[in-house]
Amino acid sequence: MTDILAPRPAGGGEWWRTAAVYQIYIRSFADGNGDGVGDVAGLRARLPYLRDLGVDAVWINPWYLSPMADGGYDVADFRRIDPVLGTLEEGIEFIAEAHDHGIRVILDIVPNHVSDQHAWFQEALAAAPGSPARERFLFRDGKGPGGDQPPNDWRAAFGGPAWTRTTNADGTPGQWYLHLFAPEQPDLNWEHPEVRAEFESILRFWFDKGVDGFRIDVAHGLVKHPDLPDFPRHEHDQHLTRDGAEHPHADRDGVHEIYRAWRAIADEYDGDRVFAAEAWVPSPERLARYLRPDELHTAFNFHFLEASWEAKAMRGAIDDSFAALSPIGAPVTWVLSNHDVVRHVSRFGRPLHAQNKNLGLVSDVPVDLESGTRRARAAALLSLALPGSVYLYQGEELGLWEVEDLPPEVLQDPTWERSGHTDPGRDGCRVPLPWAGEEPPFGFGGAEPWLPQPAAWRELTAEAEAARSDSMLNLYREALRVRRSEPGLVSAEMSWTSSPEGVLSFDRGEGVRCVVNFADAPYPLPGDADVVLASEPVEDGLLPTDAAVWLRLV
Length: 554
Prior knowledge:
5-stranded antiparallel sheet
């Protein structure tokens, strides 16, 4: 097979500092072969849509060979594309075609764990305790009589203990292995040189195919405390405790050596290859450590994503992010939704007390979709006006909400089973996109989609929204167009301007002002400015509540 490599998209150096990146959960983007699951063929067919939307790059969730125990984040082979999704040749062709459209391609890399079907883990299961094959993972003897208790008290992110016991060849109980997520996702031992060498080889494999960068899954979690001590605070979350106590398997200093080696590899290639970290850490200051000049380029700004819809919370997240990253010269990234959290139309449609506690668990607090949609439109203009890069999750440009009434029998997120059917998991934000038509599958593909779509999405198809000038889709298209062409939004820094409580106002350079009204009453805009773009109609110089506007100062 011959690699098909197109010239890299045009643009200045360090394109990632200001890029608009569109996240693609490939199983739910577009189905090209009619089997009900999104695939590379569907992705290739929709490249003109992405070009017309105006994004600079796409980030594709894992498309590698996988048993799909966790939506592709249980990888059996990083050098193959799963046959349900396509072939390696199709993937290479897609990369070239995306470049032809001026779109860069970022892949997901999952270094914390592999699938239990990965050749390494199968070899480890067949090997004896203490064998070299088991040293690539974290196998340990159990505690208590007969080793019947897990080696420590760690909990898995999807619920239950983080340890599963193996069975020896003679049928007797064996050692335990660590999995911080599902049992089908054994954690790798990143102290092992073969693990480090293998992932460096994987990076080179895809860089050689023309990939522009990688989003690093669980970037904070690779290195564990060598003693694997008990951690009684695990009920807080998977990250550093809020009081700054040392965590045995999150945000440990050893991860930075790994990323310095990865950065050196990326710098060997032309075209500004990039890394973006998914690093769940307790503060922007901790996040900044991943973005030092010789480490990673960018990281997801979950501090902003976690902010509730109120001026004080949003400004606090913005100020804290700049304060932490500006001293090291790293760009801030802005993100409102992704494949792991409740869509922000639904989050913002709930009362303030329920918003930032509702990232991953569907709430029993009723949602006001009209209010959530209005706020989502304003949030789009806010995030797209801020200096730095922005990540858009597929479907947010259509105003899709979280599907919270999926039947239990269709749920596939491992959280559903591991939580004892108390947490439905993340499937509600992963429902396949509606493209056209009046009823499901809304042009997604020929067969019934792998998750059912709401009938009410007939008003939110890409086809329907393209025809409405005031749609969410056309708001995003115009905002991305202006963001690329307006000098103040391209390169200028921001400065806050005076505004009353409940209103945020800032200038980008000397030409553009963004105003967001969180207050309960309309806000009078300055008379010496022209409206460039508004999330809601501006009448008599008044910005409505829960609305945002971009102004050109005259």
